[in-house]
Amino acid sequence: MTYPLIVVPFVIVTAAVTLATLRRPRFRERMASSGLLALVLVGLTLVFDNLMIAVDLFSYPDEHLSGLRLGLAPIEDFAYPLCAAFLVPALFTLLSPRPSPKDAA
């Protein structure tokens, strides 16, 4: 089960960075947008991973996987698009300067 263990740090970092933006403005809107983006990315991953595995562009050794699959694609492959959908906007939010109170007025 190597691949599931590789995914864990990405998920932990994504959760931590996303939660760090909790008090920033528009958190709910950002989470809704990230959720929609995650659905799109997971859909694309589902289609294209299955196609690439079906035509033998790559394969995964079974002993390194959790055993859960969506079609031919191992479930571990879906962690990366999910992390990207939430981590990138969260990092952008954290790295953007906060508006000063006088700018808000």
UniProtKB/TrEMBL annotation:
<keyword id="KW-0125">Carotenoid biosynthesis</keyword>
<keyword id="KW-1133">Transmembrane helix</keyword>
<feature type="transmembrane region" description="Helical">
    <location>
        <begin position="35"/>
        <end position="58"/>
    </location>
</feature>
<protein>
    <submittedName>
        <fullName>Lycopene cyclase domain-containing protein</fullName>
    </submittedName>
</protein>
<keyword id="KW-0472">Membrane</keyword>
<feature type="transmembrane region" description="Helical">
    <location>
        <begin position="6"/>
        <end position="23"/>
    </location>
</feature>
<feature type="transmembrane region" description="Helical">
    <location>
        <begin position="78"/>
        <end position="95"/>
    </location>
</feature>
<dbReference type="Pfam" id="PF18916">
    <property type="entry name" value="Lycopene_cyc"/>
</dbReference>
<feature type="domain" description="Lycopene cyclase">
    <location>
        <begin position="8"/>
        <end position="94"/>
    </location>
</feature>
<comment type="pathway">
    <text>Carotenoid biosynthesis.</text>
</comment>
<keyword id="KW-0812">Transmembrane</keyword>
<dbReference type="InterPro" id="IPR017825">
    <property type="entry name" value="Lycopene_cyclase_dom"/>
</dbReference>
<keyword id="KW-0413">Isomerase</keyword>
